[in-house]
Structures are given as C-alpha cells and as structure tokens.
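User: Before I run my own analysis I want an independent prediction to cross-check against. Here's the chain; please return only the structure tokens and, at the end, one sentence I can use as a sanity check.
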Amino acid sequence: MTSLRFEVAALRDFARSHLVAAGAASTDADLVARSLVDADRAGIFSHGLLRLPLYLSAIEAGGIDVRARPRITREHGAVTVIDAGSTFGQVAMQEAVDRAISVAPVHGMATVSVRGSTHFGAGRFWMEQLNAKGLAGILTSTTGPVATPFGGAHPMLGTNPLTIGLPSDGPSPLLADLATTAGAFGKVVSARNEGTEIPAGWAVDASGSPDGRTRARRSTAVRWSRSAGTRDPGSRC
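Assistant: Structure tokens:
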C-alpha cells in the first residue's frame, strides 16, 4: 500500500482553515493544528489529524466552546486550578504549561489542575515544552468511559492517559506517553474507519469476551489493563 505524503505546512493550513471555519479564533486554530500535525509526524496517528473531524463534530454539538477562555479559579503558592470552560483542550493545556513553567522556578515545583477541558491531543506535545525548560513533569488526565474494567463487559472507565518526561543531555528528553488500556482508542477508531482488524486482546464484545483479531466495528469497548503484572500492557496515550 502506497502512503501519501504531504507538506507539513499544507496539513497545518488544512486543519487551521477548517477550525477557523467552525468558529475558532485563528491563534487557537493554529495551536490545535500544530498539535495534531506534530502527533502525526511523531507516528502517533491516533492523536493526529484523525481527531480533526471529531473536534469539528464536537464544536457543532456544543461539546467544544470555541469562544471560551481558560481562567484561573484558584492559586496558592505552587498550586493553580484552571477552569477551561470547555474550550479546546490544547488551549487549556497551553495555559497550564505556561503557568507551570512560570511557577516552578519560584517554588521548586508546580501543580496545575485543569477542569472542564476537552481532548488535548498527544501528551508529548506538552511534556516536551516542560522538558525544554529543564523541568521534569507528570501529566495525567481522565477521559470518557470507553474501557471495560478487567473482566467486565461494559465501558465504565476512561483510558486515563499518563505522560512522564525528563530532560536529558541528549538531543531529546526521556518520554513515556501511555495509558491504562490494552490498545489506543484512537487506533481502534482508525481501524473502524478503514475496516481493518485490531490486535487480539484489544477489545471485548457485548458479552465481555475478548474479541480476538476482529473488525473494530464489531467491538463494543477496549479492554482495561490490570495493574502490576498485567496481561494486557497499556499502550494508549
């Protein structure tokens, strides 16, 4: 199968123009576009432009408020709480990252909590900004219920992504970008869209039985991985 190749600038412009047409401010659209294309360039296709139509649908449905601005609701020393107001997750995350970068040198650390947010893309996009400033970081998030508890049949849990980053003396930081489900939910969406198979153990059917290597459209939920010695190592970010 031949892969199509596009200029990075063209892909950013494509995403930006669609977001602006949906009502997003130009600066917000540019940030979101950069985060999505960056994920694709890194091979994290589950968090790349695959997400663009989902964002546009969320805007149309009112799940993303393109006019909302993040605002600080609480701050005390190294701790900050930000209300995203259902704006783009990328816009809220940039506010959180900038806040952490400014607070950490003063207090030796920074904890920033964001509520009322939406999907913010790949965690590495934000962690690399912290690492570039010489900061180690841990980024966690909840998500909507798309995963079954281990041994369960119905989606009750989120993929709950986790990103950990450490600056290094090398050309890039040490990064771990993962989650607690057996497979990336975005990859399940991609397989469903393309009508391709997903790996064995990634999903369960309506009865809770492992779906095996099957069409993603037949699966009802991704599997939740057991912690400590799991048989289903998490790979979703």
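Sanity check: The two ends are 27 Å apart (CA to CA).
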